[in-house]
Specification:
The protein is an alpha/beta fold. The protein is built from 15 helices and 20 strands. Bound molecules: flavin-adenine dinucleotide (FAD).
Length: 474
């Protein structure tokens, strides 16, 4: 067997799954993680006996292999979960995803009439004439009509994402915005017709790689982090090497072959030689960390891809449940989503308490990202104003952050992404996988699947060479 290990960068769902797969095929694997724990976005922050999640996360999948692997790993610790979501618009609470019936009955009758007229107008006009440049704004207008677009999407998207829908590629609206039932049916008819006529959807392949909640929902008594924790334990039990608190600084290459990874831990840099690499780091950061540097086209593509950050404010409250649903969305507050872990069957200390997690979308340049006291004050003021809790009920507050929470499908991102994926596909011993690694809104089970697939591609690419090197010389 080759002396050098295969190095996997990032110990989130994708990296853990890739490491598992490589291990199961007999490869020596080193898994590198910048944080002090594995799990990435699906890991949790442990504070005074409680686990605060980035989100929090629910496990679900329709993929039989991922389901069976996670059920095998977790056994009876995997608990069924029922999700409830409410969204507040114009002083009313709506179920989520929005249903046509609720919109009709809860909005003022005059608005409903205007919305219906503009819906029909935009729908028909859109079918007759396509816009010169399709953006998320033109797509949403066509799907919902001007009135509903303005009420439900325009300002909300601008606030949560920092830019208006007109600056987003149509892929953003297609993948991120849940549809009315009627529009789902219309979409299915169109897809069926396109298949019959032999037409193909344009753009980057996203089939199977779209963030959708399908299949039964699961959690554990310590949230999703118990799953990623156990994946990491299984990896190290099988002699995998997990380097925590270790940040990737450079990926060394000779032409189209990766030769090593420069990492930093405890303020010291060192180089790990490697047989091959799977990266789950943000694709643009991986591209920019290659040394020698890639050509100007790849560097400019890497600089064009953006991520939206989220600051999470975890709040412990001495009440079993605080919110009216497990997830609640707001348009006018500092946080766009807040979750009550009391609905998840989590073990929360002390008994009778719950944990709330508020999500504040921002940019790392914003003050909300850097100023902990400011973000805490903003969240508490909104909770009090919304009559969700009183300041005196708060027992603890903690702030934690995800810099690369959401890939941003801005106009033209497809070209930048396909340039980088094209560059990486030319490498003989390198693969990129995961939500950040392939710049796609995917859920944990798809990130895991991407990890498996990247390992399979890498093994197929490197197998012949490694086996030939390993064979005894005649
Ligand atoms: C708010 C929110 C809620 C979500 N809710 C759900 C849900 O309920 N269910 C669901 O299935 N999915 C959910 N998702 C999606 C899910 O989080 C992701 O699909 C999944 O966690 C992605 O895994 P990954 O391994 O691709 O990336 P990540 O989890 O981001 O892992 C990448 C890892 O790389 C490490 N890393 C980055 N840079 C470096 C470096 N330079 N050196 C070393 N290590 C580095 C990071 O620390 C991280 O651990 C949610 C996402 C968000 C943002």
């Amino acid at each position: 067997m080759s002396q050098e290990p295969t190095v996997v960068l990032g110990a989130g769902c994708a990296g853990l799954a890739a490491a598992w797969r490589l291990q199961s095929r007999g490869r020596r694997v080193v898994l590198i993680e910048a944080e002090d724990h594995a799990g990435g976005l699906a890991g949790g922050i442990r504070i005074r006996g409680n686990v605060y999640e980035y989100g929090p996360h629910i496990f679900h999948t329709t993929d039989p292999q991922i389901l069976s692997d996670i059920k095998g790993l977790m056994g009876a610790d995997l608990l069924p979960y029922r999700r409830t979501i409410q969204i507040k618009f114009l002083g009313n609470y709506f179920q989520f995803p929005l249903s046509m019936t609720e919109v009709v009955f809860k909005l003022p009758p005059a608005t409903v009439l205007r919305a219906a007229a503009s819906f029909v107008y935009c729908f028909v006009a859109g079918a007759l004439r396509k816009p010169e440049v399709e953006t998320s704004e033109t797509l949403l207008r066509r799907c919902y009509g001007e009135v509903l677009y303005r009420i439900f999407f325009k300002n909300y998207i601008t606030r949560v994402w920092g830019i208006p829908p007109s600056e987003f590629s149509p892929a953003f609206a297609r993948e991120r915005i849940p549809r009315f039932d009627l529009l789902e049916i219309w979409d299915k008819i169109k897809t069926l017709a396109r298949q019959r006529l032999g037409g193909l959807a344009q753009g980057i392949r996203t089939s199977g790689y779209v963030e959708k909640v399908e299949g039964d929902l699961y959690t554990t008594r310590q949230g999703f982090s118990m799953i990623t924790q156990r994946m990491a334990e299984r990896f190290t039990e099988k002699k995998g090497e997990l380097l925590l608190n270790t940040a990737v600084k450079k990926i060394l290459r000779e032409g189209g072959r990766v030769t090593g990874v420069v990492v930093e831990s405890d303020g010291r840099e060192r180089t790990l030689a490697c047989e091959a690499v799977i990266s789950t780091l943000p694709i643009n950061e991986a591209a920019l960390s290659l040394s020698p540097e890639l050509g100007p086209e790849a560097v400019s593509a890497a600089s064009a891809l953006r991520f939206r950050a989220i600051v999470f404010v975890g709040i412990k409250v001495r009440r079993a449940r605080v919110l009216r649903a497990s997830f609640m969305y707001f348009r006018e507050h500092s946080f766009n989503r807040i979750t009550d872990l009391g609905y998840f069957g989590f073990k929360i200390e002390p008994a009778g308490s719950t944990l709330l997690v508020a999500e504040v979308s921002c940019d790392p340049k914003d003050r909300l990202w850097t100023d902990e006291e400011m973000v805490k004050r903003a969240v508490v003021a909104d909770l009090v104003r919304e009559d969700i809790l009183a300041q005196e009920e708060i027992e603890e507050m903690h702030v934690f952050r995800a810099k690369h929470a959401q890939p941003m499908y801005t106009m033209g991102y497809e070209k930048a992404l396909s340039t980088l994926l094209g560059v990486f596909s030319e490498f003989s011993n390198f693969e990129t996988a995961g939500r950040q690694g392939r710049f796609q809104y995917v859920n944990t089970h798809v990130a895991m699947k991407m990890g498996y697939e990247a390992a399979d591609r890498l093994l197929a690419k490197t197998f012949d060479r490694i086996e030939r090197q390993d064979a005894p010389h005649a």
